[in-house]
């Protein structure tokens, strides 16, 4: 009897060590999973038909319970998750026209059709700029910053459309 218990524990350990994907397949009885040599080595070949059927039932139920628990965990893990977002893309464009300053609240129309509003205090240029080439890149916490190649400090902006 002690040998049967040891065999049962060994069989359960073997089945639990299988990868999770193995449990998603159709249930295969233990005697069909092991070779004749493995059945002899574990003592499973000495079980009666009723004992073997009980072992298969217990293992099948245990595996089904594990799969149900994994499904519940996966559902809980996915609950409330935001859809995956693509990373924000930097915008390189030109602000057509001439200007001496960009002020807070002013909307800049880019040559690609995008409109961006100046959020912070803006900037005054020492001399008028014409067709300014700008790069708008994401910053921390969802902020966006407009930069120019001439060394002007970055300007915080917000997309209008």
Give me the secondary-structure topology:
Blueprint: H1 2-16, H2 20-23, H3 30-33, H4 36-42, H5 49-78, E1 91-103, E2 107-109, E3 115-118, E4 122-138, E5 144-148, E6 155-159
Antiparallel strand pairs: 1-4, 2-3, 3-6, 4-5, 5-6
Question: Could you name the key traits of this structure?
Answer:
161 residues; alpha+beta; six-stranded antiparallel sheet; 5 helices; rod-shaped
Can you offer a commentary on this structure?
This protein is an alpha+beta fold. Helices cover 37% and strands 29% of the residues. The chain is built from 5 helices and 6 strands; from the N terminus they run αααααββββββ. It has a 6-stranded antiparallel sheet with strand order 1-4-5-6-3-2, with no helix packed on it. A hairpin with a 5-residue loop joins strand 2 and strand 3. The radius of gyration is 34 Å and the shape is rod-shaped. It starts with a helix and ends with a strand. The mean pLDDT is 83.
How is this structure best summarized?
The protein is an alpha+beta fold. The protein has five helices and six strands; from the N terminus they run αααααββββββ.
